[in-house]
Design brief:
The complex is a heterodimer of chains A (218) and B (257). By secondary structure, chain A is mainly α. Chain A is 81% helix and 0% strand. The longest helix of chain A is centred in the N-terminal third of the chain and has 39 residues. The termini of chain B are far apart. Classes of the chains: A mainly alpha (218), B alpha/beta (257).
């Protein structure tokens, strides 16, 4: 049985719709992981122990267990205690929180790396600790950490394939559906691999653009 | 004048890190419009004293008053934060390393705090920034980032940023020590302008010539105490204390060499 790529056009719309879902999940989870990461970092660094400790435990939980298991737990597990999360939301939350924990580690390092004089200058003007963080420290910390955060976001895009197991019709699951009808796994997996790669290239181009834009304000 | 309480009143200031006493029972009164220079060897506690005034380095003993307000009063944490943030709005500070916000343009460096803390509109804050930047001669650079400026230009912007809060007093912590020699003068000129406007200033400095020409009073500090104080012509020309004489001799020799 040879290869036959001529089956692709017939299923292209399903696969492209899957790509749209993959992009939507990736963007949603990226936003959650970005702001979640900043909030987790600030809590870890500045909140009193009684608040930061539970969050620390939560972070260890997310770092120390498989993402696949976390998705199962959010989608299939939470229903049992009356929290019914739609599959797409479960994917965004699961992926988002998982990568928020990774991002938080990066943000913590970069927040601590911002020169002490920056905080002193802000506080001297009369800004509160939180105002200084929001307007002076965090913007600089974020700027310094864009490249490694970008790497995390590319990992997030690839891990979004896991969301197929809870039934979100993203790219990988659409490919499997097309394969189910055509019995052409090689053709569709290659197609999907190419689409992931293209999304990746676009993400990297956007990141490079952002990095260039912040270069001047260093 | 003498009937009024001092504008800034430092009473028995003490500061220790463990067993190390950085400030030992220092008292200092500054009148409104007075310009006081604090000189002394490094490690003498002069920067610590300056930074205690706006509570960047809190005292371990003693009181600091600005007019009728005690700056370092004892309050529950939350109330103290609110109190100190209000007090700090009235005290401008200029640092050795400028500490401009590198992610913001010159304009935003100056407008940020007035907009956030005084509720100025964008237009009001811009007008204020333009006024202050004109005063320090930096209006042409208003849309530059700090990374595009020289050290002297950065420090002038830092002064404008502090002035935009309309402080009652300005603290200068070795404002020209990090500058290349040829850039010192432009910052000194701005400080002289402030002196002519009778801004109350406390200046920690190594620039004896500048201190002599601008200041009303000079304090010589060593090892956490004020060794000698007086008008600049006395401290610089005719100091009575042996330690002051030694310091000035060494310092002037260093400058000549």
């Amino acid at each position: 049985m040879g290869l036959d790529f001529s089956v692709i056009p017939k299923y292209l719309d399903i696969v492209l719709l899957g790509a749209v879902w993959t992009i939507a999940i990736t963007i949603g989870a990226a936003v959650v992981s970005f702001f979640g990461g900043i909030i987790l970092a600030i809590i870890a660094l500045y909140a009193p122990k009684i608040i930061s400790w539970p969050f620390r435990a939560f972070s260890f939980l997310f770092l120390g267990t498989p993402l696949l298991l976390q998705l199962f737990l959010i989608y299939f597990g939470l229903v049992q205690i009356g929290i019914d999360v739609p599959a797409f939301m479960a994917g965004v939350i699961g992926l988002g929180l998982h990568f928020a924990v990774y991002n938080s580690e990066l943000f913590q390092t970069s927040i601590l790396a911002v020169d002490k004089g920056q905080n002193e200058a802000a506080r001297t003007l009369g800004l509160s600790r939180l105002q200084a963080l929001r307007k002076v420290i965090v913007p600089q910390a974020v700027r310094d950490v864009i490249p490694p955060i970008g790497n995390n976001m590319i990992a997030l895009l690839k891990d979004s394939a896991l969301v197929s197991v809870i039934g979100v019709s993203e790219l990988t699951l659409s490919a499997q559906r097309a394969i189910g009808s055509t019995y052409r796994p090689f053709e569709f997996y290659v197609l999907v691999a190419i689409i992931y790669y293209i999304i990746n290239l676009v993400m990297e181009a956007v990141l490079r653009h952002v990095e260039r834009r912040i270069q001047v304000s260093r | 004048m003498s009937d009024q309480p001092p504008f800034i009143d430092i009473r028995h200031a003490q500061k220790s890190f463990g067993t190390l006493d950085v400030l030992k029972d220092i008292s200092l009164q500054v009148e409104r419009g007075q310009i006081v220079a604090i000189i002394g060897p490094s490690g003498s506690g002069k920067s610590t004293l300056l930074r205690a005034i706006n509570d960047l380095d809190p005292l371990t003993g003693g009181e600091i008053w600005l007019e009728d307000k005690q700056i370092n009063k004892t309050l529950p944490h939350r109330q103290y934060e609110k109190h100190i943030n209000e007090v700090r709005q009235e005290i401008g500070m200029v640092f050795q390393h400028f500490n401009l916000f590198p992610h913001l343009k010159v304009r935003e460096n100056v407008t940020m705090a007035p907009k956030m803390l005084k509720g100025l509109s964008e237009a009001q804050a811009n007008a204020l920034a333009e006024e202050q930047l004109t005063k320090v001669g930096m209006i042409e650079r208003i849309d530059y980032y700090p990374s595009q400026l020289s050290g002297g230009q950065k420090q002038r912007v830092a002064i404008a940023r502090a002035l935009a809060m309309k402080p009652k007093v300005m603290l200068f912590d070795e404002a020209t020590s990090a500058l290349d020699p040829e850039l010192v003068e432009e910052v000194n000129l701005v400080m002289k302008t402030l002196a002519e406007e009778h801004m109350t200033m406390i200046i920690v400095t190594h620039e004896m010539g500048f201190a002599e020409s601008v200041c009303d009073r000079v304090l010589f500090m060593d090892q956490g105490v004020v060794v000698e104080e007086g008008p600049p012509e006395v401290i610089f020309r005719n100091p009575t204390n042996e330690r002051t004489r030694n310091f000035l001799r060494k310092h002037l020799a260093g400058q000549a060499g």
